[in-house]
Amino acid sequence: MEPVIKAENLTKQFKDIVAVDQISFNVWAGECFGFLGPNGAGKTSTIRMIYGFSPITNGRLTVFGKDIKQHLREIKTRIGVCQQENNLDPDLTVWENLLVYARYFNLDKKTAQERAQEWLNFMGLAHKRTAPIPELSGGLMRRLVIARALIHNPDLLILDEPTTGLDPQSRHQVWEQLWQLKTKGLCILLTTHYMDEAEQICDRLVIMDHGRILVEGVPSTLIHQHIGGNVIEVENPTSGLLDFLKTKQILYENLSHRLLIHSRDGEKLFRQISGEFCTSGCTLRMATLEDVFLKFTGRGLRE
Amino acid sequence: MNLNSPNSELPTFDSRLRTPNYITWRFIRVWQRNWDVYIKTWKINFLPPILEPIFYLLAFGAGLGYFVGRIPYNGRLISYTAFIAPGLLAINIMQNAFFENTYASYVRMYYQKTFDAIMATPLTVEEIILGELFWGASRSLMATTLMMIILSFFGLLDYPWSLGILPVALLGGLAFGSVAMCFTALMPNIESFNLPVFLFITPMFLFSGTFFPLDQFPLWAQALAWIFPLTHVVELTRALALDSPSLQQLWNLLYLLAFCLIALPLSLRLMVRRLIH
């Protein structure tokens, strides 16, 4: 089987910075593939190359088995794109936005109307049909952007930070709808810096930083491989605890007032530590994707 | 977008100049989008081309014209009102396309991100801009049509030659729209458009033979005026409106055509440079 997207040594260079530095990855039909990374990691630059906004500097990129340099227009007829900003047409209503967009894909009016109604229903927007865009809430706008991206029934949906800036209710609704789309067999590519989002909907993901892919895999496997099952958090750790961990050769991360101990057999170790070394707070929790993310990208703040 | 250059080096401005995207009829989709928006507020959009000639004719024709008297044109004497009416049509052609493809296109590009949204569809940047340019020219044509109806009521247009003003409106609109689009591609913010309006539109408005005959000028100033595209549009509209087109008008047409052939592709390339990174 041929991958939907195949990138080999994909590189994007702007005037003085290398935004994407020789990355390679495959995205397969029917999966949801995520790009995780801090701001400026190169996620958006990568997907902008995939939906044809940005010419590739070097390397090779094929989508649906076709080279993006030669077949861009053909490829663009089969992908749906939700950019980071809600670029809905504020001069048009909800319904008109969908119909006008369908026309860019050469859908005839009857088909466009049927599809528009179908996706409005699916996205729970049918009651907003005649609403002008500036009256929509952030969550509704985002759902309309997704509906618009689906109007031509694409084989690949690309979302750049689909839930950034949304309230929790709207985020969960968007996830639910993306999940339904995935079960219909749609291939989805998304960027995010929300760990819960990636854990919820991505089958596979890569963590990027400084234009490179640091790690690739299935979320649960990544957590298990790189962190283990649990994390023990100790507030104001004593020097006795640090000595104990060093002699036992247990990995930990020291954040001055808080100690994070990654552990595979968490409960046994937790009982020992909380019994012998803990004075104040000491908690045991499940390892999350955030632990993996911070392990690979560090805790330094980004511009 | 560098479609035709496999194994290309860094996509610099120059390499993109050599490999423009091919353009298809799909640009009409952008025109349709703008038409849909325009027609929603048609009452407001129709008003300026109807009222403007009435204001001007009152102020200049009835007011100023009283002092000016008659003006020699092509070996005959005509009223001042008859002299400026084709000038008003020409200015109208210039302004509609120019303002559409500066301020309005800039708002769609920069504030509304409409171009970004369309770029994610099968359309290319070149097709989007071409659609915008034809839309600008169409606005010139529509405004000219409305204005001609009003001027005809005053008996200021001779038919059937005056009908020739309609294709002139389209060609002139394309010329001014293309220049406008070049500015749109280069301007860092919307306030900067004051500069081309002040340095390009205002001098043309005044010194292209619109309100007085060019031969009032010293020779060097006349030569300068012939560089302005508006001078050629005025020549055309006046000759057609006053029923006296001659071979001279063929040169006016050729000038406008040549102007479009330079300015239009240039505007496409400048916009590709602005939008594709």
Structural features:
heterodimer, A: 303 residues, alpha/beta, Rossmann fold, six-stranded mixed beta sheet, four-stranded antiparallel beta sheet, 14 strands, 37% helix, 26% strand, elongated, B: mainly alpha, 11 helices, disordered N terminus
Question: How are the elements arranged and paired?
Answer:
The complex is a heterodimer of chains A (303) and B (277).
Chain A: E1 5-13, E2 18-27, E3 32-36, H1 43-50, E4 58-63, E5 66-67, H2 72-76, E6 79-82, H3 94-104, H4 109-122, H5 138-149, E7 156-160, H6 168-183, E8 187-192, H7 195-201, E9 204-209, E10 212-217, H8 219-226, E11 230-235, H9 239-248, E12 252-254, E13 258-263, H10 266-276, E14 282-286, H11 289-297
Parallel strand pairs in A: 3-8, 3-9, 6-7, 7-8
Antiparallel strand pairs in A: 1-2, 1-4, 4-5, 9-10, 11-13, 11-14, 12-13
Helix pairs in contact in A: 3-4, 8-11
Chain B: H1 13-18, H2 28-40, H3 42-68, E1 70-73, E2 76-79, H4 80-111, H5 114-119, H6 125-153, H7 165-186, H8 194-207, H9 219-225, H10 229-241, H11 248-275
Antiparallel strand pairs in B: 1-2
Helix pairs in contact in B: 2-6, 3-4, 3-6, 4-6, 4-7, 4-10, 6-7, 6-11, 7-10, 7-11, 10-11
